Amino acid sequence: MTVSASGRVGLWLVGARGSVATTAVCGLAALRAGLAPATGCVTERLPGAVLPAWDDIVVGGHDLVTTSYEKRAEHLSRAGVIPHHLLAPVVPALRAADAEVRDGYHPTTHRGPQALAVRRLAADLETFRFKHELERVVVVNVASTEPPVPHVPAFESWSALSAALDDPALSVLPPSSVAACAALTAGCSYVDFTPSTGVAIPALDELARHNGVPYAGRDGKTGETLLRTALAPMFTDRALRVLSWSGTNLLGGGDGATLADPASAASKLRSKSDGLATLLGGPVSAPLHIDNVPDLGEQKIAWDHVTFEGFLGARMSLQFTWTGLDSALAAPLVLDLTRLLAAAHASGISGVVPELGFFFKDPLGSEEHRFDHQSATLTAWAQTLGGAR
C-alpha cells in the first residue's frame, strides 16, 4: 500500500452511534495514535494502492439515537470488543466525532415530501465537507437492517424518482435509500454495509454516474458467509456434491434484537442463501435460522452442518462453528471501504464498483462469490488507484 500525501477525506456513518460505527471510530483513533496494529484492515496488505492515510480521515454521521460515543464505547469495552486500556486515549476522538453527528431520517417523524429529507441530509454532508475542508466524503450505511420493501417501485430513471420524491402524497423510498440518495446528491460516494434496499435502485445508479461518484455494497461479509465463500468452492472444485448446508446463527446486542423480527431477518437470510446457491452452482437445501440470544451481547455464534456425497454415493459431512465479535470484524472493513471508495472517487471512477465485491455477501455489480477470486480481483484493481482511468 502507498499512502497518499494529499487530500482529507470524510467518513460519514449512517447509524453513527451503533456498535460497528463506534468500534470504527475507536479503531481509527487508535491507529492514528499508534496504539494498536491494523489487524483486520485489508488495505494494509494491498500493494501499490494509493490510499488516504489514517490521519486524513474525519468522522461524522447521521443517527436517531442520542447515546454518546463514550457511553457506547464503555459498553463495547465491557463486551470485550474494545480493550479497556484504549478507552481513555480515544476519548478526544469520540467527542470530536460526537460533535459531528446530526439527526437522521425516519418516516414517522418526517413531514413533507421525501425530497425535503434528501435535501436536509445532503446539506449536512455539504456542511461537513466545507467545515473540514475535505476533498471528498464517503457515506457508509451501518444502520440496523430494514425489512424487505417489496412495494418500492423500480424507478428506472432518476427523473421519475425525483418527481416522486417531490410529491407530498408519496413516501416511495425506505430510509436506507433516502440516505443513499442524499449521499449521491451531495456528490459523496456510498457504501451499503447492510442488506437494506439502499442504493440498489436503477435510478440511483443513474444519479451516481451523473454526479461522477462511485458506490459499493451490499451486506458486509464478516463471519459465517465469509467461511462459506472460502469453503463452498472446495466442494465444487473437488467434484463433490453438496446435498444440504444448514446453518444456525445465535447473536445478541442490537443486531440480535433487530433480527428477532422475522421481517427484518428476511433481508439477511436472502443475501446469505443467494450467495451459497451461486457458489454451489444451483439450488441446495439450505435451511438457515437466526436467533436472538440477549446474553451473548456483542458475540455472534454460527454453526453449520454440511452433508455431501462422494464417489459411489458415499455420504459424508462437515461441521464447523464460528464465534466472533461482529463489530470487531466489521469495523476494519468500514475503514477499508472508506479508503478504497475515496481513492476510486479521486481516480475518476463512478457508478457501482464490482471489484469491491470481496467485502459483501450480495455484491452489487458482480455475480462472483468465490473468496479467492474476489481477493485476486480486489488486489489487481487496487493497484490501478491513484490516477484517472
TrEMBL record:
**Record domain Myo-inositol-1-phosphate synthase GAPDH-like: where:** 223-327
- InterPro entries according to UniProt: Myo-inos-1-P_Synthase, Myo-inos-1-P_Synthase_GAPDH, NAD(P)-bd_dom_sf
Where is coiled-coil annotated?
A: none
**Record family assignment:** Belongs to the myo-inositol 1-phosphate synthase family.
Q: Can you name this protein?
A: Inositol-3-phosphate synthase
Which source organism? Actinokineospora guangxiensis
Q: What is the lineage of its organism?
A: Bacteria, Bacillati, Actinomycetota, Actinomycetes, Pseudonocardiales
